[in-house]
Design goal:
Blueprint: E1 4-7, H1 9-14, E2 20-35, E3 39-50, E4 55-56, E5 59-62, H2 69-81, E6 95-101, E7 107-115, H3 118-127, E8 138-143, H4 156-159, H5 168-178, H6 184-193
Parallel strand pairs: 2-7
Antiparallel strand pairs: 1-6, 2-3, 2-5, 3-4, 3-8, 6-7
Bound molecules: inosine-5'-diphosphate.
Inosine-5'-diphosphate binds at residues 22, 24, 56-57, 59-61, 107, 109, 137, 165-168, 171.
Length: 204
């Protein structure tokens, strides 16, 4: 994946036909539970295990020549999350930002976030096995652990050492900070402690 550069929605939509567009969304809900009765979960954040073994957000390629970005995103969400995604109907107000990447292909990614109730979030999880792409492009949904365990590595740092599709890891980190789901200092510590980070203590 080449270097990714932010650009505005209107700049993105003015790019020529040689550019492909993809929209993805972070869906989240406040989650009052505690792991082992002790560690606060904070929020449930949805990602998915993809067909290629990488983690990503629900969404996919869209064609802005045939409809709005959000039309394309909502269609992809239904294919990947099932009919339970239909009532969500993401809109321009859910848009967070866009990035362009030149290599290996000319791609613009558009990112959205939507806060759900925990009941809505659970209904999505329960319905996802009936989605058209379940077992095909989507192997299953996962919740992102937002906490860091007492060993300093378990939880978010270890989650971040997975393989991610495209710019999904950067989108996750940026939106967790912007939405205030994880304090910035804790995010930076999790990145540094992630077992694949060059700054992390390496196993001897
Ligand atoms: O969560 C993500 N965030 C950012 N880019 C992603 C994410 N998932 C996939 N991509 C990239 O977006 C493009 C579309 O991939 P995706 O597999 O979502 O489309 P599709 O479902 O229409 O086949 C690919 O270049 C992929 O690398």
């Amino acid at each position: 994946m080449g270097e990714s550069r932010p650009l505005s929605r209107s700049e993105a939509l003015q790019l020529g036909p040689g550019w492909r567009h993809a929209c993805h969304a972070l869906l989240y809900a406040p989650c009052p539970g505690r792991l082992f009765g002790v560690v606060p979960l904070g929020h449930a954040v949805l990602m998915q295990m993809r067909f290629d073994g990488r983690l990503g957000f629900p969404g996919g390629f869209v064609d802005p020549r045939t409809g709005s970005l959000e039309d394309g995103l909502n269609r992809e969400l239904q294919e990947e999350l099932g009919p339970g995604a239909a009532p969500l109907c993401l809109a321009e107000g859910d848009y967070l930002g866009s990035c362009r990447v030149e290599a290996p292909q000319r791609l613009v990614t558009h990112f959205y976030t939507r806060r759900l109730s925990l009941e809505q979030f659970r209904a999505l999880e329960e319905g996802a096995t009936r989605a058209q792409e379940h077992g095909l492009e989507v192997m299953g949904l996962v919740r992102v652990p937002l906490y860091t365990l007492r060993d300093g590595v378990g939880g978010l740092p270890t989650f971040l050492s997975n393989a991610f599709a495209g710019g999904a890891r950067e989108q996750l980190l940026e939106s967790l900070g912007i939405l205030g789901l994880v304090p910035e200092a804790q995010l930076s510590e999790a990145v540094a402690a992630s077992p694949k980070s060059p700054d992390a203590p390496q196993p001897s």
